[in-house]
Amino acid sequence: MDLKKLTQGDQIIGVSGIVLFIISFFNWLGYSVSGVRSLPGVPTSASATAWHFTLTLLAVLLGLALLAYVVLKAVGVEMPSTFGSITLAQVVLGVAAVAFLFVLIKVIAGPNGITTGSVGGVTVSKTRKFGIFVGLIATIGLVAGAFLNFRAEQSSSSPPSA
Predict the structure, then answer these.
(1) In the beta sheet, which residues pair with residue 118?
(2) Cys-Cys crosslink for 27: which of 6, 15, 129, 162, Cβ 3.0 to 4.6 Å?
(3) Can you say whether residue 114 is alpha, beta or left, with left for phi > 0 and alpha for psi between -120 and 50 degrees?
(4) 3-state secondary structure the chain
(5) Vertex 152 angle, CA 147 and 157, to 5°
(6) For residues 38 and 50, is the Cβ–Cβ distance under 8 A?
């Protein structure tokens, strides 16, 4: 594995992909209920990892796909530069952007199936845990690395201006 084959963008994608995978095992989202006495076997709060929510699971899998791309590039596997009229850098940027959007949606929406509010003194609230914010930063890293590769490709393919 030759890390010198990797661009700065590839290195950022690789580190971000590793961070996203590791942080995916931490709690990302949850809920808490207040104003009610705890009943045996009924939790008043719960949280789950990225692997328990569809969008965050897809974001982690996309991050792993980008990490695999970087590893393949580091070991010297030749990648096709274009897919018809779309370049590999555009594909990587698109995948990174989708991963970021999936995590951003979950940051905004919180966990599914839980309605926040207060009824009869019982309050239910959605919680966002440490993991989702680190995951959001990691997906921003994926986009930043992919964008650096895209810009490098654009500058190398454009003809010099006179």
Answers:
(1) 123
(2) 129
(3) beta
(4) CCHHHCCHHHHHHHHHHHHHHHHCCCEEEEEEEECCCCECCECCEEEEEHHHCHHHHHHHHHHHHHHHHHHHHHCCCCCCCEECCEEHHHHHHHHHHHHHHHHHHHHHHCCCCCCCEEECCEEEEEEECHHHHHHHHHHHHHHHHHHHHHHHHHHHHCCCCC
(5) 125
(6) no
- Rg value, the chain, Cα: 20
pLDDT in tens, 10-47: 999 999 999 999 999 999 998 877 776 666 666 677 78
Pairing of strands 82-83, 45-49: unpaired
Tell how far CA 65 is from the center of its chain: 11
φ/ψ of 116, rounded to 5, equals: -85, 150
Total residue count of the chain as it appears in this document:
162
- Token pair 């929406």 in the structure block, residue: 109
